[in-house]
Amino acid sequence: MTYTAGIDVGSTYTKAVILGGDRRIAGRALEPTGFKLAEVAERVFATALEAAGLTRADVGYIIATGFGRHQAALSDTQVTDLTASARGTTFLFPGTRTILDVGGQTMKASRIDEAAFVRSFRLNDKCAAGTGAFLEKTARYMGYGIEEIGPLVGTSKHAVAISGVCAVFAESEVINQLSEGTPPADIMHGAIVSLVGRSVQLMKRVQMEPEFTLIGGILRFEKMVSVVREQLRQPVNVPTGDLVQYTQALGAALLGQHRLQKLAADAKVV
Predict the structure, then answer these.
(1) Which residue, 177, 181, 231, 171, is CA-closest to 202?
(2) Are 173 and 191 in contact (CB under 8 A)?
(3) Rounded CA gap, 254 and 205, in Å?
(4) In terms of pTM, does the model score above 0.85?
(5) Rounded distance, CA 133 to CA 135, Å?
(6) For the segment 66-106, what is each residue's pLDDT rounded down to a tens digit?
(7) Domains within the chain, CATH numbers bracketed
(8) Strand 107-112 and strand 25-32: pairing?
(9) Cα dihedral sign for 104, 108, 109, 115?
């Protein structure tokens, strides 16, 4: 069996997926990106290989994606994160036509066609209030870690309005709410509603259409998914478990399989 690898060098986390010729995930790994992008790409690849029980020689093609893809010297080629997301989401949910990707530092919406080609896309306005970093900052300010966001917001009775148009003003609202004795869970819920409102506006700008698929690390919080569903008033697809964070790396690995098949076909012609 010939294996391929997809490495997603994201702004917050770097992920690797090892994919077999049967399109089953053999191994995967994730760790914070940090500042040494080439090194973290090597490490997550090595960890994913170990998880799969493989060596580098077993991998026939490596594709890097994400904002730091050009720093992944071990890759054979690179693709944009939009392209990788389109491939990964349509593999998991073939009917996908609109993708919302919310990461730590970026938020992207894209509309794709039946062949998984990107037809329209929009990025957030480079303000932290439009990314997962806003949720992390809000949680930290109230004394909670990022992994506590899910359990915390799960106890919320209602969402407190957080209307700040940027992270600085929104943080001021959080401070005021805390001073008034508002429960942290309700503040966190309000921050999620605010972020989802921005994401839906981004989706409207790409002329969204169903099916909708949600990916990115922030979508691992169940409340985030439920609020998106409420605001869209439509069903949404979400990869199971931590696969929501690996969708781009999976898409890159799938493109690697396609590339290997093309190389093999070209060799036969010659």
Answers:
(1) 231
(2) no
(3) 28
(4) yes
(5) 5
(6) 999 999 999 999 999 999 999 999 999 999 999 999 887 78
(7) 1-78+240-270 (3.30.420.40), 95-239 (3.30.420.40)
(8) unpaired
(9) negative
